[in-house]
Design a protein that fits this description.
The complex is a heterotrimer of chains A (373), B (316) and C (314). With 316 residues, chain B is an alpha/beta fold. Chain B has eleven helices and 14 strands. The chains are: A mainly alpha (373), B alpha/beta (316), C alpha/beta (314).
Chain lengths: 373, 316, 314
C-alpha cells in the first residue's frame, strides 16, 4: 500500500469535511448532545412516586406508618381516599401509581398482638415502577415492623432469624446513570461513526466522480484506508467530548486504565467506521446508506448487545449471533474498565474479538470495492 | 509531412459489450498510432462511452480484446490506468474542492508531488487560462472552465494516452475553440488522443475518425479517405423559403438526399455536374428564390448521413 | 394590436451581490423561433426560469402569454411548455404512460387526452414505440418524447433549454422540423442551443454575456453588421500550430479553429491575406487556401464574446 496515495485520499476527504460546515458541526456536537439528552432522560431510579392512601383508622400508628413511607422521598402523597373503591378511579386516571389501603382496626390489631394486614394496589401497566414500588414498600413495611417489635418488646430488639447483608460492588449507590452512561457511550459512538462513513463512497457514485476514481491507480485498500483516517480523527474528538461530559455531568467513574480504554476505544471506533464503510461500498444511494447505517447500529446496540437487557437472558442462538456485533464486546469492555477497573488480563478475549471484527469489516469493504463500473 | 508507420498505442480487436437485452458495442476493430488524434463520432447510444470505458479498463468487455499503451485491458487493467488520462462525460471533478486541490489530488495519486507537482500544475493551469481561478471551488466554475480543469487533471501525470469522452458537449463555441487549441498543442508533443464527439465538424480536425452507429463502425480512416471512398458529391443551396426548397430538391432525380445545414441545404448526389441544372430548375419551378448553388467539398457530417442511409437501405 | 407572446423589459435577477441577469429586454412574437445564445453562466437558464414562473425576478417585468411572471406565475405556467435537457421523463414508464402522466399534470381534459397523445406520438415519430419503456429509448427519441409531453396542453409559448445536446445529426434535424412546424402553427418558441447551425435558422437571436444581452437581431442582421470585412478562410497543415502562430502575427486580430481549417480576422482586408499566407508558408504550414469568407453566425458569436471578454472583467 502506498502511503502517498492513502494520504492523498485522506486529504481530499478532510477538505470535503471542512467545507461541509453544517455536517461537521452536527458530527462533532451530536454525540455530546445525545449523551446529555438521554443521559438525563433515561433513569431507572424512581423517585416521588405518586401515592394515594386509604386510612380509615386514622390512628397514631397508622399515621406513623404512612409518614414513614412518605418521608423517604420515594413516594409522594397525592390523595387521601375516602373509600377503597376510589382506588380504581385514582389509578385509572393516573393520579397515583400506588394505593396503600389500611384496615379499619389497624391500631387495635397491633395492640392486640395480631398481624395487621396492609394492602398495596399498584398500577401494573407501568411494570417497572410497579416492581420497584412493591419492593420499596415491602422493605419499608418490614423495617417498620421490626421497629415496632423492638419498641413493643421494651427496648429489647429481637434479632430476626436471618439478616441478609447486602453489599453492592462497583456501583454502590446502584445509580442507574453509572449503568446507563457507559452503555450510552457505546451506542452513540457506534451510531455516529457508522453514519459518518456510510456516505463517503456512495457519495462518489452519486456525484459521478466514481468513474474517474476507478481509472486512477489507487487500490481498494488504499482507498478504504485513506477514507478511514479523517473519520478516526473526528471520532476521537467525539470520544474526548463524551468522556468529559460523562465525567463532569454524570460523575461516572473511571477506575481502570485510561490508556487501555483509549486504545480499545480506538479499535471500537474503527469497527464502527468499518461498518459504515462496508455499507457505503454496497449501496447505491446516500439516503439508503444512511438508513441502513441507522438500522444496523441503533437498534441492535440498544436492544441486543447488553445495553439494558442482559445477553445471558437471550435465547442461545441469539446470544451467539450478537457476538458478531462489535458493540456486544465493547459494552462489556467499557463497563468493566470504567466501573470495575478491569485490566487487559480479564478483557483480552473481548479485545481480541473486537479487533478481529474491525479487521474483517475493513477487509470486506476493500474486497467488495470493485475497480470497474 | 511523411507519416512513418508508428506503433499502435490503442488497439481493439473484436471488442464487444453486451448488457442484458442490449449489445452496446458489437465487434469493433480500432487502431490509433502514437501521437495521433482519433475521433470516434456518433450519436448518443451509439456505444461511444461504452467503448471508452472498456479501453480505460473501467468496464470489462464481454468479448474481444484491447491493448492500450502496451498493456492488455482485460489482464493488466491497473497498468493501463497508470499510463492514461481519462476525462469521462460527467467530468469526475470534486465540486467541493478548489481547482488547485482537484489537480493536486489526481497528481498525488499518480505519484506526482512536491516541486514537480507545483511546476506542472502552474504550467498546465496557466496554459488553459485557469490560472486566475486556482482558489475557486470546482462547483463555482462555468461549463467551459470545468472541461478544461478536467483535462488538466488528466494531463498532470504526463500520460502517453488521453481518452476524452465528449469533452465539448454542452459548451459554447468559444470555449470549444480554446479547448481544441489545447488538444492540438498536445498532439505536437506526441500524446495519443482518442476522443468521442457528437460534433462532426470537430471530427474533421482529427487525423483519423471512426463513425460509430448502433455499436458498429460505419467507416474508419482519414477524413479525406472516408470522403473519397463514398463517391459522393455535394451541392450547397442557399434559397428562400428553405423548407419548400428542401422538398423540391428532395424530389429532383439524381439527388440522393437533402438536409438542412444551418441556413443552407446540402444536396447529395453521385454526380454534381449532372444534377446541378435540373436542381436549379426544380427549385425555380417550385417558386423558390435561389441565392446561390455551388459544389462544396463533402464533409464528415454529409458522410455520416450517407452511411446511415446506406445502412438502412441494405437488407438487414 | 396584439400583444407579443413574450415581453421582457429590464428583467433582473440578483443573488446577493451577484447579478445573474441584468436589465434584459426583448420580445418574442407568436410563431417566431427565437434563439437565446451565450456561454454557460451567461444567464440564459436563469432568464428562462424567470419566464416560466419558476424563479421570481428581482426587478423588471416579464409577460408571457399576457400574464406577468412575477405576479401570476400559475397563469403563466398554464400557457407554456417547458423542455430541458434534464427533463424528467420517467424511465420506468412506457412512452404512452409518460404522455398520460404529463397530460394529467397539465390538466388536459380527459376527452382530449387520447387525441393529444396520438398527435404527440405522430409528431415525435414514436407511434411504434407506444408501449416501450422510456429507459430503453435512445436519447434522440427521448428528446422528442419530452417535447411531446411539453406540448400536450397546446401551449402558446414553448421554452426549450438545450433540447438537442449530444443528439445525433439526423435526430437533431427531425427535432427542429417539429419546432418549425410549431412555429408555423403560431406557437412562440424560445430555444437555447450551442449548435450554431441551429441558431442560423432562428428568426431572431439574442446573445447573452455576463447576464446582459449584448446583441439582438436576425442571423442575417448580425452577420451584416459584424466583422465580415477582414474575415479569411484558411486551409493549411497543422491547423493547431497555425492558430497559435497567427495569433501572434502582426496584422491579425483574431485566429481560431473552424471546422477543419482556420478562420482569421485581419485588421487590413487589403493586405491581410498576403500577410497570413506569407506567415504560414514561412512556418512550413503550406496554406492551400487563403480567401475572404462570409461570416457565419459562429464567427459573429465568437467575435462578440471575445470583445465582451476583453472589455469586461468577468
Amino acid at each position: 500500500m502506498n502511503g502517498d496515495r492513502i494520504l492523498a485520499v485522506a486529504d481530499k476527504e478532510v477538505r470535503y469535511l471542512l467545507r461541509d460546515r453544517r455536517s461537521l458541526g452536527v458530527t462533532l456536537l451530536l454525540p455530546v448532545a445525545l449523551l446529555i439528552l438521554y443521559g438525563y432522560a433515561i433513569n431507572f431510579d424512581v423517585r416521588e412516586i405518586p401515592l394515594a392512601v386509604y386510612d380509615p383508622d386514622r390512628s397514631a400508628e397508622s399515621r406513623d406508618l404512612v409518614q414513614t413511607v412518605t418521608r423517604t422521598g420515594y413516594f409522594r402523597l397525592v390523595r387521601t381516599l375516602d373509600s377503597p373503591r376510589q382506588a380504581e378511579d385514582v389509578l385509572q386516571r393516573g393520579e397515583a401509581k400506588v394505593v396503600l389501603v389500611l384496615p379499619a382496626g389497624f391500631a387495635a390489631d397491633l395492640a392486640a398482638g395480631r398481624t395487621a394486614s396492609l394492602q398495596t394496589v399498584v398500577d401494573g401497566a407501568d411494570s417497572l415502577t410497579a416492581t420497584i414500588s412493591l419492593s420499596y414498600l415491602e422493605a419499608m413495611a418490614q423495617e417498620w415492623s421490626l421497629r415496632r417489635l423492638a419498641e413493643a418488646g421494651g427496648g429489647e430488639r429481637r434479632a430476626p432469624p436471618i439478616s441478609p447483608e447486602v453489599r453492592v460492588w462497583y456501583n454502590e449507590g446502584l445509580a442507574s446513570t453509572h449503568f446507563i452512561i457507559p452503555g450510552l457511550v457505546v451506542l452513540i459512538l457506534m451510531m455516529v461513526a457508522a453514519l459518518l462513513t456510510s456516505q463517503t463512497i456512495v457519495r462518489e457514485r452519486e456525484q459521478g466522480t466514481i468513474e474517474g476514481l476507478v481509472v486512477l491507480p489507487v487500490t481498494p485498500r488504499e482507498l478504504i484506508a485513506g477514507k478511514l483516517l479523517p473519520y478516526v480523527a473526528i471520532a476521537a474528538v467525539d470520544v474526548a467530548l463524551i468522556g468529559v461530559a460523562g465525567k463532569l455531568l454524570f460523575g461516572v467513574p473511571l477506575r481502570g486504565s485510561p490508556a487501555l480504554l483509549s486504545g480499545l476505544m480506538l479499535i471500537y471506533i474503527i469497527a464502527a467506521l468499518g461498518t459504515g464503510l462496508l455499507i457505503s461500498v454496497l449501496t447505491r444511494s446516500q439516503q439508503l446508506a444512511y438508513m441502513i447505517a441507522l438500522i444496523a447500529t441503533l437498534l441492535p446496540t440498544m436492544l441486543l448487545t447488553g445495553f439494558v437487557f442482559p445477553v445471558a437472558s437471550m435465547p442461545k442462538v441469539l446470544q451467539m449471533v450478537v457476538q458478531l456485533h462489535p458493540s456486544t464486546h465493547f459494552m462489556v469492555i467499557v463497563r468493566g474498565l470504567a466501573l470495575k477497573g478491569a485490566g487487559i488480563g480479564v478483557l483480552w478475549p473481548r479485545a481480541l474479538a473486537l479487533t478481529v471484527i474491525a479487521g474483517a469489516l475493513l477487509a470486506a469493504s476493500a474486497a467488495k470495492f470493485k475497480k470497474t463500473l | 509531412m511523411a507519416s512513418k508507420r508508428k506503433r499502435a498505442m490503442i488497439e481493439a480487436r473484436g471488442l464487444r459489450m453486451a448488457f442484458a437485452g442490449l449489445t452496446a458495442v458489437d465487434g469493433i476493430d480500432l487502431e490509433v498510432a502514437a501521437g495521433e488524434i482519433f475521433g470516434l463520432v456518433g450519436p448518443d447510444g451509439a456505444g461511444k462511452t461504452t467503448m471508452m470505458r472498456m479501453l480505460c479498463g473501467a468496464l470489462t468487455p464481454t468479448g474481444g480484446t484491447a491493448r492500450v499503451a502496451g498493456f492488455g485491458v482485460l489482464t493488466q487493467a491497473e497498468e493501463v490506468k497508470r499510463r492514461i488520462g481519462y476525462v469521462p462525460q460527467r467530468l469526475s471533478l470534486y465540486s467541493e474542492l478548489t481547482v488547485d486541490e482537484n489537480v493536486g489530488f489526481v497528481a498525488r495519486v499518480h505519484g506526482v508531488k512536491g516541486r514537480l507537482l507545483e511546476d506542472r500544475r502552474e504550467r498546465l493551469l496557466s496554459f488553459s487560462r485557469l490560472g486566475r481561478f486556482r482558489k475557486r471551488l470546482a462547483r463555482d466554475l462555468s461549463g467551459g472552465m470545468r472541461q478544461k480543469l478536467a483535462l488538466v487533471c488528466a494531463l498532470v501525470h504526463e500520460p502517453q494516452v488521453l481518452l476524452l469522452d465528449e469533452p465539448t458537449t454542452g459548451v459554447d463555441p468559444v470555449s470549444r475553440g480554446e479547448f481544441w487549441e489545447i488538444l492540438m498543442d498536445l498532439v505536437g508533443r506526441d500524446i495519443t488522443i482518442l476522443l468521442t464527439t457528437a460534433y462532426l465538424e470537430e471530427a474533421e480536425r482529427c487525423a483519423r475518425v471512426g463513425l460509430l452507429h448502433r455499436g458498429r463502425l460505419l467507416a474508419e480512416g482519414r477524413p479525406e479517405e472516408i470522403r473519397r471512398e463514398l463517391g459522393l458529391e455535394l451541392l450547397e443551396v442557399t434559397c428562400e423559403p428553405l423548407a419548400k426548397g428542401r422538398e423540391a430538391a428532395a424530389e429532383t432525380p439524381g439527388v440522393r438526399w437533402v438536409e438542412a445545414f444551418g441556413d443552407r441545404l446540402h444536396a447529395a448526389t453521385r454526380s454534381a455536374s449532372e444534377v446541378e441544372r435540373p436542381l436549379r430548375a426544380a427549385l425555380e419551378a417550385a417558386g423558390v428564390r435561389v441565392t446561390s448553388l455551388r459544389r462544396i467539398q463533402t464533409g464528415l457530417e454529409d458522410a455520416f448521413f450517407e452511411l446511415v442511409r446506406r445502412g438502412r437501405e441494405e437488407p438487414a | 394590436m396584439s400583444e407579443s407572446a413574450v415581453e421582457v423589459s429590464g428583467l433582473t435577477k440578483r443573488f446577493g451581490d451577484f447579478a445573474a441577469v441584468e436589465g434584459v429586454s426583448f420580445a418574442v412574437e407568436r410563431g417566431e423561433v427565437f434563439g437565446l445564445l451565450g456561454p454557460n453562466g451567461a444567464g440564459k437558464s436563469t432568464t428562462i426560469r424567470m419566464l416560466c414562473g419558476i424563479l421570481a425576478p428581482t426587478s423588471g417585468e416579464g409577460r408571457v402569454g399576457g400574464h406577468d411572471v412575477g405576479r401570476e406565475p400559475e397563469a403563466v405556467r398554464e400557457r407554456i411548455g417547458y423542455m430541458s435537457q434534464r427533463f424528467s421523463l420517467y424511465l420506468d414508464l412506457t412512452t404512452e404512460e409518460n404522455l398520460e402522466f404529463y397530460g394529467g399534470i397539465y390538466g388536459v381534459a380527459r376527452e382530449r387526452l387520447s387525441e393529444r397523445i396520438g398527435w404527440a406520438l405522430e409528431m415525435a415519430g414514436l407511434e411504434e414505440q407506444r408501449h416501450r419503456l422510456t429507459g430503453e429509448l435512445p436519447t434522440g427519441w427521448r428528446q422528442r418524447l419530452a417535447l411531446g409531453c411539453a406540448l400536450l396542453h397546446e401551449p402558446e409559448v414553448v421554452f426549450l433549454d438545450e433540447p438537442t445536446a449530444g443528439v445525433d445529426p439526423i435526430s437533431r434535424r427531425r427535432f427542429w422540423e417539429v419546432i418549425y412546424g410549431l412555429a408555423e402553427a403560431g406557437v412562440a418558441c424560445l430555444v437555447t442551443t450551442h449548435y450554431m447551425d441551429e441558431a442560423e435558422r432562428c428568426d431572431r437571436v439574442a446573445l447573452m454575456y455576463g447576464g446582459r444581452v449584448i446583441a439582438l437581431d436576425s442571423p442575417e442582421g448580425l452577420k451584416r453588421q459584424s466583422v465580415a470585412a477582414g474575415l479569411l478562410e484558411v486551409a493549411c497543415e497543422e491547423p493547431g500550430r497555425a492558430v497559435a502562430l497567427l495569433q501572434k502575427t502582426a496584422g491579425v486580430k483574431r485566429a481560431r479553429l473552424y471546422g477543419a481549417g482556420v478562420h482569421v480576422v485581419v485588421s487590413e482586408p487589403a493586405t491581410g491575406a498576403r500577410l497570413v499566407r506569407e506567415a504560414l508558408e514561412a512556418a512550413g504550414l503550406r496554406p492551400s487556401r487563403v480567401e475572404a469568407a462570409e461570416a457565419s453566425l459562429e464567427d459573429v458569436f465568437v467575435a462578440l464574446i471575445q470583445e465582451a471578454e476583453a472589455g469586461g472583467a468577468r
